[in-house]
Amino acid sequence: TDMLIFQSDGQLIAASADAPAEIRTQQESVREGWLCLPVTEGRTYLGCVAVPDPLLNTYSRMRKQLLLTASAVCGFVFLLLVGIGLYLRRRIVKPFCNMQRFAVRIAQGDLDDPLLMEQDNLFGSFTESFDIMREALRESRGREAALKQREKELAASLSHDIKTPVTGIRLICELLAVRTDDPYLRGKISDIDRKAEQIHVLADDLLTASLNELGEMQLHCQDSPSSVVQTLLKEHDSRGLVRAEAIPECLICADTGRLSQVIGNIISNSYKYAGTPIDVHYAFSGGYLAMEIADHGSGISEEELTHITEKYYRGKSNSAGKDGSGLGLYIANELMQRMGGMLKCESRGGFSVTLLIPLSR
User: Fold this and answer.
1) Percent helix, strand, coil in the chain (nearest 5)?
2) How many domains does the chain have?
3) 297 is a domain residue
4) 189: Cβ–Cβ under 8 A, 6 or more apart, which residues?
5) Parallel, antiparallel, or unpaired for β 242-244 and 278-285?
6) Would residue 135 count as lying in a domain?
7) How far is CA 266 from the centre of its chain?
8) pTM for this one?
9) pLDDT single digits (tens) 263-316
10) Which of 159, 186, 213 marks a domain boundary?
11) Which structural domain, as residue segments, surrounds residue 176?
12) Which are the contacts of 298, defined by CB distance < 8 A and separation ≥ 6?
């Protein structure tokens, strides 16, 4: 048994072999929880004998065991929670995250990548229904694209086929106008010719728009003298309303056939909506020949001006009761961009369109 013997002044005088060496005084033994048994002779205090407190040792052992048990239980609970978390992440959270990313891809139009499924997925049937929906959407989009393609091809074919009989009607009108002197008949023939011209312009616009959507519109830009612009103006000014100033001599780089269509669309619009004289001015602007075509009609609002070159858009202020498709300026803008130029619209005391025609380089 551990034992320490202290003299009356509290100093250690003897110790058992197994006693702790760090205890040198009675006070230290008391702090360590040892029991001090006094040794007296009569009423004289001789010292004390210190022995370990058996209850304290039992308490220490129980405390250590309790700490070990609590640590083991906490460790087990922690590992259990980690395992449950990993299980929930794999079986519930991860599938939901995959479906969320899948929904984002679907919203962005990506219908090609399938939604991957795991064999032990708790939401297997639910996930499979999402992938079935993706397949159905992809097939539907494919059918829609094929239908739109056929519609564009049909529109291109019809607009091309319409031009042949319309050209024949216009030639017959010219022939009848030459052979008759009756003013009434001449007026009716002129009306027929104007309607045929409108159909011809519309067919040209539909054909150009369809070819543009099909990616088959071809332009052949080449150097031409600027005088060709004046020639095109005269060809399309059937009412004699164009007042053009002298054009500067230069070489332009453009597809004259498409440029003719652009100028024809602008003049046709002016005839239809303004019916006033049309002034044409020229100027050099950087590497372009700027051609301003301006009428003196009521013009359009600023709000309409921002949309006037959009496909199928028609101004609200002056289009009531007027035939049209909303393709004229859209086609003109597309063709000018394809030729490397630009088209700008303004409404100041009338409606004006400025064509920036590229100069030869």
Assistant:
1) 55, 20, 30
2) 3
3) yes
4) 173, 176, 177, 180
5) parallel
6) no
7) 34
8) 0.54
9) 988 998 898 888 899 999 999 999 999 999 999 988 888 888 888 888 878 766
10) 213
11) 150-213
12) 274, 317, 318, 350
